[in-house]
Design brief:
The protein has 64 residues and is an all-alpha fold. The chain is built from two helices and no strands. The longest helix has 20 residues. The model has no long low-confidence stretch (mean pLDDT 85).
Length: 64
């Protein structure tokens, strides 16, 4: 069974890794909501926030 993934463009944009991640998460969130499958929104948001926090810390340290 083929599962559609959100389309987002990574590459030559001037967006930071955290901005790229947020764009991906927004597209993935919409895809999951519209899939008709069970979706634990709170768990998804908690995981997203944990990763985003780490990315932002790495960016502030100049490591991302």
């Amino acid at each position: 069974m083929s599962e559609e993934r959100p389309t987002y463009t990574r590459g030559t944009s001037s967006r930071s890794p955290s901005e790229e991640f947020i764009a991906y998460c927004e597209a993935e969130f919409e895809r999951r909501l519209n899939s008709g499958d069970d979706f634990d929104q709170a768990r998804y948001e908690k995981a997203r926030d944990l990763v985003l926090d780490r990315l932002e810390r790495l960016e502030s340290e100049g490591r991302a």
